Amino acid sequence: MANNAPIGIYDSGLGGLTVWREVRRLLPHEALVYLGDGKNCPYGSRPKEEIRALADEAVGTLVAEGCKLVVVACNTATAAAIDFLRAKYAPLPIVGMEPAVKPACLATRSGVVGVLATERSLDGDLFRRTAARYGRGIEVLTVPGRGFVELVEQDREQTPEAEACVRAAVGGMLDRGVDQIVLGCTHYPFLLPVLKRVLAGRDVTVVDPSPAVARRVAQLLDEYGLRTADKGPGRCRFLTFADEAYRLRLEKKAMESLV
Ligand code: DGL
User: Fold this and answer.
1) Distance between CA 19 and CA 186 in Å, rounded?
2) Residues forming the active site
3) Ligand 1 centre distance from Cα of residue 239 (Å)
4) Average pLDDT over residues 214-224
5) Pick among 3.30.365.10, 3.40.50.11540, 3.40.50.1860, 2.30.110.10: CATH of 101-207
6) Which of 19-33, 135-149, 158-172 bottoms out in mean pLDDT, i.e. has the lowest?
7) Is the dihedral of CA 75, 79, 81, 87 positive or negative?
8) Where does the pLDDT of residue 126 fall: very low under 50, low under 70, confident under 90, or very high at 90 and above?
9) Residue whose CA is at the smallest distance from ligand 1 atom 9
10) What gap in Å lies between CA 115 and CA 100, rounded to an integer?
11) Using the 8-state DSSP alphabet, how is residue 189 labeled?
């Protein structure tokens, strides 16, 4: 059975485009609707109840757009609301962002793994459970990426200020011997060029979970029999709770991210 309805992808802002890009590359025939809240971004230090209400409104919007599957491409919203969303919108398949602690813990040789994420993601149960399950015998260092989301939202990823923020966040981890750094927020891969500069000459692997999330989407489409029958490039649309200027930024950044 085929289903030509779109896949919905949601984030607090521009960050989920790092997941959108991987889904687009892996599933080019699927129509995609991206919703970047924009009006309430950043979510990172908001109370859980508030994030849950925002995520509810966003997923409700994507459902009203006729989406057959929704990706919550936001670690913070996943941590605050994934169980609630799955229960409320059942049987809609919903993919969330798992902190990629498992692959990092399996790959580490130094026994020290660093995780960069927002405050709210790091103090959530989801993260605690994952770290407890896979981090046994391994030192898991967590650091909030202070200022990272704002840098990306303001298109300031390539500034000296961005480099200073990244250096400040990873300095302590490097001193303690990390050889894996997990990106636990979907905004952070936009800072990869700066992070790579900061890590130059060091034997540190950066773990970005977005390709694995795209593979999970493909797997669920097959499981539910939801792949499109379309053979051409799928239509991509962009929505926001902010204004038209922000919507156009989403569209532009998405297209730039593909090249
Ligand atoms: N991109 C989001 C995440 O993955 C949210 C960042 C924010 O709005 O603070 O956590």
Assistant:
1) 7
2) 74, 185
3) 17
4) 97
5) 3.40.50.1860
6) 135-149
7) positive
8) confident
9) 44
10) 9
11) G
